[in-house]
From TrEMBL:
Superkingdom, taxonomy of origin: Bacteria
Species for this entry: Pseudoalteromonas xiamenensis
Membrane topology: Multi-pass membrane protein
Obligatory cofactor(s): heme b
Name of protein: Cytochrome b/b6 domain-containing protein
GO CC aspect terms: plasma membrane
Family, similarity comment: Belongs to the cytochrome b561 family.
Location (main, coarse): membrane
A biological-process GO annotation: respiratory electron transport chain
Pfam family, one: Ni_hydr_CYTB
Transmembrane domains' residue ranges: 12-34, 40-59
A GO MF term: heme binding
């Protein structure tokens, strides 16, 4: 392990976004699977909340950069992890946040 630690704010954003995304997934699957369409406003509100939490997270990540890799990590794994992190950040921003409705 290296001496670089992830900031408390980065951990906070990470877990808040993770919980919101799990909530979105749960509400969305339940709504679609059981055709409980009154859940749609909750699903949409969670999506908007996610957007407002994700934007500061992305700005913070752009300012701070990615965490340093673990010292024993092979170079190829570091590259894959770096691209995966950017892909996850981009995918959270490019979701359909109810703009079409």
């Amino acid at each position: 392990m290296n001496s670089h630690t992830v900031s408390a704010s980065a951990r906070f954003y990470h877990w808040v976004i993770a919980l919101i995304m799990v909530g979105l997934l749960g509400v969305g699957i339940t709504m679609a699977q059981f055709e409980i369409w009154p859940l749609y406003p909750i699903h949409k509100a969670l999506g908007v909340l996610a957007l407002f939490v994700i934007i500061p997270r992305v700005v913070m990540r752009l300012k701070q950069g990615m965490p340093l890799p673990v010292e024993q990590t092979p170079n190829w794994q570091h590259k894959v992890a770096k691209y995966a992190h950017w892909l996850l950040l981009a995918s959270t921003l490019t979701r359909d946040y109810g703009v079409n409705s």
